[in-house]
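#struct-pred
JK: can someone run the complex with iron/sulfur cluster? inputs below
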Amino acid sequence: MKVEISRRRFLQGSVALSVVGGTALSGTSIMAKSEEKTENLLVKKVPTICEMCVNKCAAVAYVKNGIVTKLEPNPYFPKSRNMLCARGAAGIHALYDPDRLKYPLIRAGERGDGKYRRATWDEAYTYIQEKMVKILDEEKDNRSCIGYCAGEGLAEHTFKTFMADKFGSSNFLNHSTICLQTAVSGYTLTIGGYGLADMENAKYVIMAGANRAEAILTPDTMDMFKRTRGRGMKLVVVDPRYTNTAMHADTYLPIRPGTDLAFVLALTYVAISTKIYNRTYVAKNFVDFDKYEKHILESGYTPEWAEKITGIPAAEIRKVAHDFMAHAPQSVYYQGRRTTWSSNDFQLRRAMALFTALGGGIDVKGGIVFGKKLPLGDHAVNAPMYANSQPRIDKNVAAVVGATGSWVGWRNMVAEGKTPYPIRGMFVYKQNPMLSVPNSAKTRQMFEKMDLVVVIDTMPSDTAMLADVILPECTYLEREDPVQSFAGS
Ligand code: SF4
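RT: done, structure tokens with the ligand placed:
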């Protein structure tokens, strides 16, 4: 008999097998069992957090003789609920990758030609120190002449604290503006926060440009799998591509790329023109609703208008708007991160937030919730050694997007020599801007202008190839980081 097994079933099976551990070997001899018992006594189980992606699921590392032999899900963490995805389980390879950076390297050729020599830590520190002293002497101790950036992770804040509070530079960048910053800014400026979709209790969810069956987000992905297909949550997936998430949807709406704003505006038009929105909530919480109503009604954002732009039939748009409001306030237009890279993404997020708010699904069970962080207190940071010498070079943009600045705007200013003072060096921590910031030729141009580039990472990267000094970093399985709390988890 041919037995077929899907990838998903295989992965489920592998998790289940690893959870039951030794009991799967019940047929082995008593001798083998006692050897196994002794072996098990040598294994230490260390609770840890997965950092293979932004979710930070809880894991247990099995450590034998100082070697991590496997990673398993930690059942006690409510955010990840006993789940460690395939990528999380494979995190062990980040630790034992043969290509890991193992010692400091100093550039031995031209910038970018990949020639480095092995150096001791003292040599590397001396090299960095001499260059920095020279730069700061020439720039009258303006600490902001040295920029720094960090990839997302539990150590990001430690690095940032050191560079901002201890060293004194104001020019920090992270991934936000090349990731979800427009979504966070759009929601925050409209309803006061980005929040979390309460997928455990929502009855109706519109998911657009968020592929939760493939791009896992805990606990949303688990709730979606648990509650769709007639188990409490109606799911509408809006995506140009028929994804694995679309397979779980009650309704799949293929949309033309980059046209989501027209779809949301038409839903809003239907809700307002037919007065099916949550009038009690709106009367209590909206500011200047009459002006907003007038704008929507006079704008001509009809389903027929949107059909021509999005390719979604007007009748479908009407049905979704009515169904959404019928389930409200347990209805959410899922916030997601981005749909396509487009200049209207900020306004799209504002329209999505407003549509959810029209149903009253804000700060209620089954809507967008804001959660609370555990009161952990502040990290103990010594008093700043230096005040930031100069404000960040992109301070006008940073005022809009928060303290993370705009990677593209910041890069362009440096590359084009349009900064109020020179940026002469950069520390790059666990980020690869040569790969992740659009227009790598321009990013290279930026690095080539600098007198000192230091890359700190676990692996060589495209950006490391432009560094003067490369310093090897620990993986998340080797570090201890400050305790953090995730809102609502
Ligand atoms: S979703 Fe997967 S990779 Fe991301 S933190 Fe959780 S287990 Fe790790």
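RT: quick notes.
The domain at 105-179+377-472 is CATH 3.40.50.740 (Rossmann fold).
Residues 50, 52-53, 55-57, 80, 84-85, 87-88, 216, 218 surround iron/sulfur cluster (CB under 6 Å).
JK: thanks, will look after standup
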